[in-house]
Amino acid sequence: MRYKQYICVLLLTIVGLQLKAQQNDVDINIHLRGVYESKISLLPMVGAKALQPIIVKKHVKAGASCKITIPEDRLPGQFVLRFDYTEKKDGSPYPVEKYCFVSNQNLELWVHPLHITKPDSTYFQMNEKENSLFDSFMKVNSLKKKNLALLRNFLVEYDNPKSKFYKLGIVEYENRRKEYNKWVSRQASINKEAFVSHLFSFQHVSSVAWVGDQKARIESMTDHFFDGIDFRDPLLVKTMDMRKWIDSYVNIYGARATTIHLRDSLFTLAGKRAIEKAKQGHPIVYGWMVDYFYRGFESFDIKQGMKMLETYIADPNCLTKKKMEIQKRLDGMKNMMIGSVAPDFKIEHESGDITQFLEYYTDSKYKLVLFWSADCYHCKEEVEKLNSWYKNLKDKNILDIFAISLDESETEIAAWKKAKTKYVGWNHIRAKGGINSPVASSYYILSVPVMVLVNTSTNEIVDFPKSIEDLKKIL
After folding, report:
1. Helix or strand or coil: residue 212?
2. Which residue of 184, 287, 299, 468 has the fewest C-beta atoms within 10 A of its own C-beta?
3. What pLDDT does residue 361 have?
């Protein structure tokens, strides 16, 4: 019995060591030339802090080398190497970028920022695998797809779909489409050890019903859109192509929308179909799909779509990263409704006095609660519009503004203190804890800016203006 236990422990140890060996950090040694110096930044394309620098090397001189170590939890992945270079000692920095794939191979990269796109000036070592494989695949792929696109355009634009010639065109197109898809699958299989091979399936060309009207074709496109994609593959979500691919799927539905109501219904339907497909695959892909549609529903304020997600976040197989945010939004939809009493909060005046929002006395007909951040560009744009409109109001008794800042860092707070001096006549409050502060939580705030219009006499919520133009219409 002890012998069997020993063997079991030994096997587990070996497996653990093998997994660890496969998950090491990866180094990129960058050799700079052709410029005076450069700041070099690494930005992930997907995941946490996507398109934000996670590693920065400053003042790398020409002729020198620097090493960037990518942690194992980021691998494999797609990245951007950004070079903010100066040609001369006192020159102004100029940015250029190089996109690259990194898996489990240490890389050597020679870079001439002035010629970042030229393969004879900026290149990896001879035995580099991922980027060279992707480049060679895409070169052949573009030629094969070009001929397929010519046939497709012919079928779309031909004016006599009942002719024998048109029917022959359909047969030829379908034969070539199937042959092309087989080639894509074969390339993915041959190169399955490479991370970039997981992107090949996004090149798959789905079938289209060439008989029938435009509506039938669109239905056929959506029905077959997911053909060729293996949702059991968790590495799909490590690629930027996954997002681009699902964007194109949603756009098919969006193109059919003629009203806001129809748009919301179509986007909800698109989400339902896509999530149901992903549900049959890997829990990570399933969760990613739910998160993707949550962000879309949040951006467009699609409440029926948000309600649709409720079933999926309760599923233990759905590895969503946005479960808390989705639940918070669902709770907000139930509790923060037009006609309900607005949540209370404290207002600290410059004199040191404290007043409760619901007890705040004013002759104004309405109270506008505005959640914003001085560090948010979109917020600044909306707040400037609001301020311009407010300053020119003939009757200022129509509205009192309560601007609640969710700024947290020293830099953000400094920006807020400076910015608020421009907005005269407003009640300025900084919520300690930012997005996680009690007041932001009570209003179920997930992003900024957010406006809530409240009736002064009853403290009931009147509406949730989406913009200054929307606010004007409501008033």
Report:
1. coil
2. 299
3. 87
